[in-house]
Amino acid sequence: MEYAAGQLAEAQSLLARALADSDERMLRDDALLELTATAEAVGRLADALRIRAAGEVAFRSRRELGEDRLSAKKGCRNAVELLARTTLASERTLTQRMRLGAATRPRTALTGDTLPAAFPEAAAALRSGALGYDSALAIIDTLDPIRGRVGDLNVELAETALVAAATGPTVESALPFAADEVRGQARVWESVLDEDGTVPAEERAMAARGISGGLTRDGLVHRKMALLPEVDAKFETLLNAYLSPRSKPTFADPDQPKDPRATAQARHDVFASLIDGAARSADAPTMGGAAPTVLVSVRQADLAAGSGAGFIEGCETPISLQAVEQFICAGGQQHVVIGDDGRLVSLSTSDRVFNAAQRRAISLRDGGCIIPGCSIPAAWSEIHHVIAYRDGGETETCNGVLLCWFHHRTIETSGWRILMIDGVPHVKPPPWLRNGRSEADTPWRRSTRSRTQLADLLEQQRKREPVLVE
Q: Entry's InterPro entries (predicted)?
């Protein structure tokens, strides 16, 4: 094994030379499929070695070794950081490799004796290149958590059957199972072996609840949520309450088209407003003495030109200038001048932010998002500068209106127009809501839902005066 690295380097060089002049576009169909299968076989062998190496690095970097652990000797916090610096792979991939490596490497007893791996069949199949990475992950991730409840013998029985199915052929199938089929079979074994489990279902649900860290892909952050039934019921009820057509007032035309957003998009936007409301709550914890604040950086030149991108602290994906403008409008901005040498030259104070007193006053006046048909409440809404700050608009109550996250994000493109008349918000609908009328023929409509308005309506009803509901 001392010569393994040199042999691998030689194999890498041979493979590189073999592929240098090849062009898969020139291959016939059968030859292309043969190349694909061979490449996968080579990949399985490489994966097996990467798993074994990651498992060994993790074993030598285990916490109980203290300062003698391998990661500490190399100046890293843990095995994941050491492997990331060595391989340049993602932490998620390395964590999976370490988990598979630990499950398929020989174990050491307290007496110092060597014991078989926790999953010896999978280990042998991985080492030979017969078992793929994804199939091994499906087997081990499904069976390992139930070992303590169903016992080693049952896990070994399931492991043997699943490895046989993944490497094939078997009596049941002339071809090996693909990774997704292996995962499905593993879940069947899990349900048979651990039908009820020794842990009550509710306790298992409590242990499994959670919201995963986000993975950025295609400009979106993907998270997985596993909510307890009662929490999901509250969340679902809250979403439905604000998305139900019965909770929304009409505007001009009772037969106006439905919300243009897909249901999933509307649910996202309600969730975005809910987060905004929670962050502004007086009960929200502070960070560094201030309310939780998302930091967004953008170059002044890009902001002035209206092109380019902004960057959120802790997120590698850039955001559009439209999103940056929404952050600025709702949360203010601070000018930081950084010299060519990276030194902070100057720092301004935060400006253009509506203070708490102004927010309370605007909330009382508007009652919620001022776009007709939107039911997002005041506490969840953002404050929008009707005349943009960059155009000379002041941060005053007579220039601020409540908009929910979605309508704030799309106010420049949706066609809705806002005008302050004597300090009161008025709106004009977009062309598709004007019933064929031109903009000039469409009147401005007052759009506030304050409690004093409701009191006025009640007073008029008591006097039996005609009431005009806008």
A: DUF222, HNH_nuc
What is the residue extent of each domain of the chain? Answer: 38-105, 115-198, 294-352, 356-464
Q: Which helix (H) or strand (E) holds 172?
A: none
Say whether pLDDT at 407 is over 60: yes
Tell me which range, 78-82, 223-227, 381-385, 432-436, is most confidently predicted by mean pLDDT: 78-82
Q: What is the mean pLDDT of residues 86-93?
A: 91
C-alpha torsion 390→393→399→405, nearest 10? 0
Rounded CA-CA distance 59/65 in Å is 10
Bridge partners of 337, per DSSP, are: 346
SS3 content of the chain, % helix, strand, coil (to 5): 50, 10, 35
Percent over 70 (pLDDT), the chain? 81
Q: Which residues contact 10 (CB under 8 A, 6 or more apart)?
A: none
Please provide residue 414's backbone torsions phi and psi, each rounded to the nearest 5 degrees: -80, -20
Beta strands in 234-330 (DSSP E): 296-297, 311-312
CA dihedral 369, 374, 375, 379 (to 10 degrees): -20
> Do 197 and 149 meet the contact criterion of CB atoms below 8 Å apart?
yes
Question: Who's near 54: CB < 8 A, 6+ residues apart?
Answer: 79, 83, 94, 97, 98, 100, 101
* pTM metric for this prediction: 0.52
Radius of gyration of the chain (CA): 31
Structure tokens that stand for 118 in this block? 């926790």
Q: CA-CA-CA-CA torsion for 399, 404, 407, 410, nearest 10 degrees?
A: 90
Phi-psi sector, 308: left (phi>0), alpha (psi -120 to 50), beta: left
On average, the pLDDT of the chain sits at: 81
| DSSP character at residue 390 | G
